[in-house]
Design brief:
43% helix, binds manganese (II) ion, alpha/beta, two-stranded antiparallel ribbon, binds 3-isopropylmalic acid
Length: 353
C-alpha cells in the first residue's frame, strides 16, 4: 500500500515520541514493502506561537491529503494559568475532531502481565481486563450551545438520533470482532439526551442478535470499572462520560504511557496516545514512546494490515520483557532507557523478526 501520513507532533513530549512512532512506521513499511510519505504539520501551542491558530488551515489541508494522521500531544502550562487566553491548544484538538468528522474515539484498555503490579488495583482484580471504550467525540456538551456569563452559564448536551445511531453501529462492529458484549453507558434516569441514547440503542440492538447488550448508568459504570473491569468488553458512551471514564480506564493498566487510541469518522482517521503533553518532561528523553508506537499498530490495523500491527505489538511486548523500559515502568535496578533508546530497540527488533 502507498501511505500518506500527516504527522502532528504538537507540544511538550509530543515531538520526541512522534519521532519514535514515525521510525516504527517506516521500519514496518520497509519490511512489508509499503511506501510511506510524511508531511509534518503544526498544531497546539506550537501552532499558536508560530501562526496564531492551534489548528491552522494548512494543517487541516495536510490532514485531508493524508490517509491517516499520526498525532502526538498538545498542551502547554502557559495557557493553563491564563483563563483569559483567547486561544488555547485544546481548541486545536476540538477543531481537528470537528473538521475531520472524527465522531468515534476508540480507547482500548489493556493490561500488560509484567506491569500488573503497577496498577493501583489489586492484581486479581485487573488481571485479564481487556475492554474498549467507544466514546462519541463530536457531539454532546463539548459542541452544544453554550452561554458563558458571569452570573449564569450553560453547556447543552445535545444529540441527534443520527449521531447516536452511527456511534452505536461502530460499537457493535467492534463487539462482533471481540467477545460480543456491549454496555451502553448513559444517565437515562435523569437526562433527556441519555433517554434518546437508550431509546435508539434499544431499537438497534435487535439488528445484532449475536451481541449481548447491557445498559448501565454512568455512575454505576464508573464503579464497576474498578470493581470488576473484566466485566466489560465494548463500552459505548457519549462524549463527556467517555472523557471521564477513559481517564479512569487508563490507570487500570498501571501506566498511561502505554495506551494508544484511534479517532475515526467521516474523513482522515487520527491515531494518538491517550496521554497528554507532559510539559515537565519535555526534551528530557524520559517519556515512554510505547503509546505512540502502539498507535501506529492501530493505524495499520485500521487498514486491515493485521500482520503489521501484530508485529508492532510483539515488538512492544519483547521490549517490556527485556526490561527495555523508560524510567516510570523500569524494574528496580534495571538499566535506564530513554525515549530514543526504547524506540531504537523496537525498530531493530522489527527489522530482525
Ligand atoms: C481527551 C482530552 C481532551 C478532551 C481535552 C484536551 C480537550 O482530555 O482527549 O480526553 O476533553 O476530550
Ligand atoms: Mn480526557
Amino acid at each position: 500500500m502507498d501511505f500518506k501520513i500527516a504527522v502532528l507532533p504538537g507540544d511538550g513530549i509530543g515531538p520526541e515520541i512522534s519521532v519514535q512512532g514515525v521510525d516504527v512506521m517506516s521500519a514496518v513499511c520497509e519490511k512489508f514493502g509499503h511506501n510511506v510519505e510524511y508531511r509534518y504539520s503544526l498544531c497546539g501551542a506550537d501552532a499558536i506561537d508560530k501562526v496564531g491558530d492551534p489548528f491552522p488551515e494548512a494543517t487541516y489541508q495536510d490532514c485531508l491529503w493524508a490517509d491517516a494522521v499520526l498525532f502526538s500531544a498538545v498542551g502547554d502550562p502557559k495557557f493553563d494559568n491564563d483563563p483569559s487566553a483567547k486561544v488555547r491548544p485544546e481548541q486545536g484538538l476540538l477543531a481537528m475532531r470537528k473538521k475531520l468528522g472524527l465522531y468515534a474515539n476508540i480507547r482500548p484498555v489493556e493490561t500488560f502481565e509484567c506491569l500488573l503490579h503497577m496498577s493501583p488495583l489489586r492484581r486479581e482484580v485487573v488481571e485479564g481486563a481487556d475492554f474498549v471504550c467507544i466514546r462519541e467525540l463530536t457531539g454532546g456538551m463539548y459542541f452544544g450551545e453554550k452561554l458563558e456569563g458571569t452570573e449564569r452559564a450553560f453547556d447543552t448536551n445535545a444529540y441527534t438520533r443520527a449521531e447516536v445511531e452511527r456511534i452505536l453501529h461502530v460499537a457493535y462492529s467492534y463487539a462482533r470482532r471481540r467477545r460480543k458484549h456491549i454496555t451502553v453507558v448513559d444517565k437515562a434516569n435523569v437526562l433527556a439526551s441519555s433517554r434518546l441514547w437508550r431509546h435508539v440503542a434499544k431499537e438497534i440492538a435487535p439488528q445484532y442478535p449475536d451481541v449481548e447488550t447491557d445498559y448501565m448508568y454512568v455512575d454505576n459504570a464508573a464503579m464497576r470499572m474498578i470493581q470488576d473491569p473484566r466485566f466489560f468488553d465494548v463500552m459505548v458512551t457519549e462524549n463527556t462520560f467517555g472523557d471521564i471514564l477513559t481517564d479512569e480506564g487508563s490507570v487500570i493498566s498501571g501506566s498511561m504511557g502505554l495506551l494508544p487510541s484511534a479517532s475515526t469518522g467521516e474523513k482522515t482517521p487520527v491515531f494518538e496516545p491517550i496521554h497528554g503533553s507532559w510539559p515537565q518532561a519535555k526534551g528530557k528523553n524520559i517519556a515512554n514512546p510505547l503509546a505512540q508506537i502502539l498507535s501506529v499498530a492501530m493505524l495499520f490495523e485500521y487498514f486491515d494490515l493485521t500482520e503489521e500491527g501484530n508485529l508492532i505489538r510483539r515488538a512492544v511486548n519483547a521490549a517490556l520483557d527485556a526490561n527495555v523500559r523508560t524510567p516510570e515502568i523500569q524494574v528496580p535496578g534495571g538499566d535506564t532507557y530513554g525515549t530514543r533508546e526504547v524506540g531504537r530497540w523496537i525498530v531493530n527488533w522489527i527489522r530482525e523478526n
